[in-house]
Amino acid sequence: MTTIFRSFRTLARAPQCRVGIQLAARVSTHAWRSPVVRLQTNTIYPRIQRPAHFSTSQSAHQTQNDPSRPDLFYHLVAEPRPMWAVSFLESYDNKEEVIGWLPAEGEPVLEDFVENAAFLPLLHYALRTGLADGVDDVHRNGAIQLQNGWMHLHDERNIPPLGRIGDPEDIIATVLVQDGEINADTYQPMPAYRVCTSYGVTKLTDGLAGRLKQVLLDHREKR
């Protein structure tokens, strides 16, 4: 069978840095398309392997890994209609742990991404506790350099130039630094933050990403 690859235009910040939702689909009956929210470059997209035939009754068992973001997974769910649930976890269990959804049918673009409001409290809890426990070297070193003042937690998908403040939609939260130490009790979420922009889906430093994954798994066990 012929494999068709499509890259759909989305809002771009700059010509050299565009985001597309790449769909790889084998032409067959009951073949849902696999989305990949990723940065566009001039390189050739990796191919996404998936079963050539499956129906919505099998949707709970269909998972795709993002070749450009190994930490992202797409789970095909059928509630209330076929959707791709974007997640940091390798398996799907409940709606609260999902970053958001993309339609499984048609030709989705960035504007079709639906954010999961229930995910944000878990994200902020993970970051606040992670900073309190000192699990992240990047922000700990940033606090040492700043010494005193407010420090923004920028999403790694779009880091601003040195000494500049990033876009509000890319600032996850702000914390107060005192004498080179992060005061996690002052953690303030940024209301304008978005989990998916033209630069991609939420991307964290290694330390905070590990804490978020553990928080999501702990939340699953408590349900």
What radius of gyration results from the CA coordinates? 19 Å
N-to-C order of helices and strands: EEEEEEEEHHEEEEEH
**Spans of 5+ residues with little confidence (pLDDT < 50)?**
1-34, 37-60
Q: Beta-strand percentage?
A: 25-35%
- The residue fraction in helices comes out at 10-25%
Largest sheet: 5 strands, antiparallel
Short description:
With 223 residues, this protein is an alpha+beta fold. The protein has helices spanning 119-132, 137-146, 206-222, and strands spanning 3-8, 18-26, 34-40, 62-66, 69-78, 82-87, 100-103, 114-115, 149-154, 171-178, 181-189, 196-197, 200-201. A hairpin with a 2-residue loop joins strand 10 (171-178) and strand 11 (181-189).
Brief descriptors of the model:
223 residues, three-stranded antiparallel beta sheet, 13 strands, globular, disordered N terminus
What's the SSE blueprint?
Layout: E1 3-8, E2 18-26, E3 34-40, E4 62-66, E5 69-78, E6 82-87, E7 100-103, E8 114-115, H1 119-132, H2 137-146, E9 149-154, E10 171-178, E11 181-189, E12 196-197, E13 200-201, H3 206-222
Antiparallel strand pairs: 1-2, 2-3, 4-5, 5-6, 6-7, 7-8, 9-10, 10-11, 12-13
Helix pairs in contact: 1-3
